[in-house]
Amino acid sequence: xxxxxxxxxxxxxxxxxxxxxxxxxxxxxxxxxxxxxxxxxxxxxxxxxxxxxxxxxxxxxxxxxxxxxxxxxxxxxxxxxxxxxxxxxxxxxxxxxxxxxxxxxxxxxxxxxxxxxxxxxxxxxxxxxxxxxxxxxxxxxxxxxxxxxxxxxxxxxxxxxxxxxxxxxxxxxxxxxxxxxxxxxxxxxxxxxxxxxxxxxxxxxxxxxxxxxxxxxxxxxxxxxxxxxxxxxxxx
Length: 236
What we know:
Blueprint: H1 3-15, H2 18-25, H3 29-43, E1 48-51, E2 54-57, H4 59-87, E3 90-95, H5 97-102, H6 104-114, E4 119-124, H7 127-135, E5 141-143, H8 181-185, E6 190-192, H9 197-208, E7 217-219, H10 222-230
Parallel strand pairs: 3-4, 3-5, 6-7
Antiparallel strand pairs: 1-2
């Protein structure tokens, strides 16, 4: 038995005539008769009595009609729900803390203007966590700061940004006309924790110049670091 059998049966029940049912379904009358015979054969019941070219529904037919209507409605509801879901634009985005705080919301606003019925979910975490989620196919895309030489992830430049040093206006470095990386390396630094994208990128650039950093303060909170910089505790 298929859903097609049930739809043919329900149409025959409603029309009380094989030919009329066939016309309504745009199929041939023998096709209708065969479908009814297959149902009767499968369940070893008589669904319709045929008297003087008229069809009369049996008790088995009445019972099947109740079930058939219910099943057809469930299938129609399922198909409609699946079609609606297929039309929705779903996007699961991962971003590291910096991108998630300062960048990603602008992109989401633009996306929603293009796709009004879109469904977006954002996960903000450390860069290495975002990359692992991409590898497990748990995200559609990830937005992080650093680029890596890796063959298992497709990478593309998304936004051109720069790293700047944040310090109290009274910091002695502002008295210098030119500030070098050596000046920065010799200062107490406020850095994000290891594994954070901006921290890894900063240390990578410093290491390329033969310089190494020894942070005065590490924190998972950018706000805490900014407040520390305002207190003239160190450079951020």
